[in-house]
Inverse folding.
């Protein structure tokens, strides 16, 4: 269960930071592209800082039990303006175990489904799975001029333009189905694991700010594909 009291306590801690330009207090604000730290003396002081710069990351290994869950929804392509499907790996609370921190749960991060970008974990899956998500979800290895390198990313099914990780998973305020405020229906495709578990490592955010769970607006579908 999401601990709202603990979440707002963490936000208060972020808000105690001092503005380096005017000496004011940095407060958590919500903008077009998500949350950020801004000075309380705005508009006299326009200092801002990406809130993610204040969020520490920790690499942890998790054991995924029962199913690999692909969570997906639709958003408008920034290029052709048509709706296209975007997806990520969904870690569900009752199907995920942290290996080095046995008492830690996905729900401790404030989510019932923790969404992991394909670019961060695709190398931990075999070529058959890469082919599967390419054929069914349009995940391709493409070059991004924004970051100056290639990575596995969502692409538009209409114009084939890359839908960058930043706008799909992070700065989601522009219409991503993974935005906390979104009412977009989501689909969770469950791919059965034939062995006992699938282990992956990922850099988890230690602070997050969900106000809406994903499961209440998700439809779960069983898959005929299997993970070995």
């Amino acid at each position: 269960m999401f601990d709202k009291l603990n979440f707002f306590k963490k936000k208060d801690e972020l808000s105690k930071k001092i503005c380096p330009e005017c000496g004011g207090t940095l407060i958590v604000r919500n903008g077009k592209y998500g949350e950020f730290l801004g000075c309380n003396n705005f508009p006299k002081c326009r200092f801002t800082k990406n809130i993610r710069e204040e969020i520490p990351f920790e690499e942890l290994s998790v054991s995924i039990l029962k199913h690999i869950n692909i969570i997906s929804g639709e958003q408008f392509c920034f290029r052709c303006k048509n709706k296209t499907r975007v997806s990520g790996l969904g870690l569900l609370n009752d199907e995920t175990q942290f290996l080095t921190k046995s008492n830690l749960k996905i729900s401790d991060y404030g989510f019932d489904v923790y969404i992991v970008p394909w670019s961060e974990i695709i190398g931990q899956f075999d070529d058959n799975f890469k082919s599967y998500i390419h054929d069914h979800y349009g995940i391709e290895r493409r070059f991004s001029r924004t970051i100056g390198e290639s990575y596995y990313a969502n692409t538009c099914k209409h114009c084939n333009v890359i839908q960058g990780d930043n706008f799909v998973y992070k700065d989601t305020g522009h219409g991503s189905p993974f935005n906390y405020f979104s009412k977009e229906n989501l689909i969770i495709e469950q791919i059965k694991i034939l062995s006992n578990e699938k282990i992956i490592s990922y850099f988890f955010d230690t602070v997050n700010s969900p106000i809406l769970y994903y499961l209440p607006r998700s439809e779960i579908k069983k898959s005929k594909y299997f993970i070995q």
In short: The helical segments are 4-14, 118-121, 127-137, 165-170. The first helix runs from residue 4 to 14. The longest strand covers residues 67-76.
